[in-house]
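Box 4.2: Ligand-aware structure prediction
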Amino acid sequence: MAIFDLVDFDDHEQVVFCSDKATGLKAIIAVHSTKLGAAVGGCRMWDYATDEEAVIDVLRLSRGMTYKNAMAGLAMGGGKSVIIGDAKQIKSEALFKAFGNALNGLGGRYVSAEDVNITTDDIAIANTVTPYVTGTEGKSGNPAPFTALGTFLGIKAAVKHKLKTDDLTGLKVAIQGLGSVGYYLCEHLHQAGAKLVVTDLNQAALDKVATEFNAEVVGLNDIYDQDADIYAPCALGATINDSTIDRIKAGIIAGCANNQLAEPRHDQALVERGILYAPDYVINAGGIINVSFEENYDKDRATRKVEEIYDTLLEIFNTADGQNKPTGRVADEMARKIIAAGGKHNL
Ligand code: NAD
């Protein structure tokens, strides 16, 4: 596998393969950029079909973190880690300690938090052997409710821009994935009067959201065909691809999942279909913004910073209209400008 030639290899500063036979740890840590500070980004546990799939995932996710942190105005670079394996089978205290030791090996160039299948309890175990974790209980804690708040505000910004209203009452939102973030997003949307149509692999998560928020449940593959105003991808990435794009009837795509577009060209494809896309790493930055307040945690200050996502997205939508460009490209250009300037405060 020629890693340096991969499309997703984007001059990453460092890619580290970590293994520990005794605990079964197989992890990859990707430090994309430390230009704005230590690379910060979550750890994902996933049963990848191949090692190549894991490498591509960590490369894409870590690059996304550089752009996300820059765009959110944080003094943090971008990195991400993946632990390969089935979360239901491989989790153990020893494994997360081994992961913590692997983090020590990078000496603070990368700081890890939670992502898919990694909980605050897992991070707390790693924290017994390494200081290079964040999003810990008792400090900033679980980032998911803040990611959900930012995503909710991002949906409101998209509705304001496209439908010219502040009112979500009666709008239909198709939500794919009811995990840590998706559940809280459903709560916000329900409280705002939106109608929910949802799907997930997990029956218990479906039952809970159906009962608590009066959500309509549909099959995994039916979520794309819904007559909804908004499609909110909140599970895994690449759900906007050649086989789904023509099925999406919603005029807005705004959800928390990372890497929603299977390929960069899908950005333009959405414009051609008249769909407004809220760039993933902008709308889902709420969690990392909250994590950036880890030391001397202040929930009000963190919340106010998360609320900035609304204005950032409006700026992207307006610039995209003005320059006749897809929103994802506009966001990338803005993020690159921030990184080149050494941070948002220098612009
Ligand atoms: P999670 O693991 O808690 O939830 C994911 C949910 O998606 C689970 O309920 C799972 O059953 C469901 N799912 C998986 N595959 C599915 C499919 N094909 N169809 C429908 N449902 C499916 O993860 P999370 O923390 O809620 O994160 C969700 C997404 O948001 C991920 O892409 C993650 O990278 C991204 N994200 C999360 C955070 C955060 O704060 N947790 C921050 C930024 C981005």
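In the box above, the bound molecule is nicotinamide-adenine-dinucleotide. The two ends are 40 Å apart (CA to CA).
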